[in-house]
Amino acid sequence: MFLASEVASLRLFVQLCISTVYCILWSVFSKVRPWTAGVGCLQEKGSCSGETITPVNRKQHQKKDVQPATTPTSVNYHFTRKCNYKCGFCFHTAKTSFVLPLEEAKRGLKLLKESGMEKINFSGGEPFLHEKGDFLGKLVQYCKQDLQLPSVSIVSNGSMIKEKWFQKYGEYLDILAISCDSFEEETNQLIGRAQGRKSHLGNLYKVRNWCQQYKVAFKINSVINTFNVDEDMTEHITQLSPVRWKVFQCLLIDGENAGEDALRQAERFVISEQQFQEFLDRHTSVSCLVPESNEKMRDSYLILDEYMRFLDCREGRKDPSRSILDVGVTEAIRFSGFDEKMFLKRGGKYVWSKADMRLEW
Fold first, then answer.
1. What's the pTM?
2. Looking at 23, 41, 48, 90, which residue is catalytic?
3. Among the four 111, 211, 230, 286, which has the fewest Cβ within 10 Å?
């Protein structure tokens, strides 16, 4: 059993290495033969998305409920799955350590901009973990400086951020969201939003001050679950004064935090609709609160995984499209399961450029 596991791991590692090298070579080749860009990755032997294209999975793509193409106004790019925290309800777990080469990631971002993207949100995993945040910083700078996107944002747990990152890249970032589920250290430890004995709340306040100093809009994300559902966070949120406080109901995703093959088992974190509503009722005085129930959240996000594949959550799991690097944005987004009406209903489009927020720094 041990030998078989080692062989399987080695085979996966070799496949990822081959896929990465292939994409790099094709990126170089496409600059010489621009009219063939994007074709090579569609060959039967493999693709930049890390999957082998066979008659079987081609039929699976064809059988999907294909939607009309939509404009990717706001996109969430989870370029890494690796994380230094172990949140028990995490719904984008470290199933692979793969990260696209920088130039390939930039190529995909340019494709998205050309297709109408206005806002990009970088997430993970923990996005500051890869190359100590320098990879992330280069993407942020590229999106704001080269692509001229109206809004560039990040979601982070805050533990890996250093002041020198703000000094180098802060001017290119519109919004930084820090995930914080409780203002009690013990509760964060129970949830898994911690690393050793380091204070998650200490990092939160430190990053909030840096955002103020380097003129980055500060946001807080909280997942409401069985461990924090009875907590009153009003005083702390008021003191931190984020531009938005996103409050999510704990969501189960098969293969991520539920099911036999999942790295997390989040059933013990799940709360009812009534419990979630009671939490919201307790915080009605917080004007920046933006609630998102399971119904609002599940299909109203355009999510790109580490291979730049749109993830369809309509069946309660994350079914990937083909990579936009292989087939382009218009084709891939048809398999995203994106509910644009719900996106607008939940307030997905708002004043998201710090230049338009008129904040007092």
1. 0.83
2. 90
3. 230
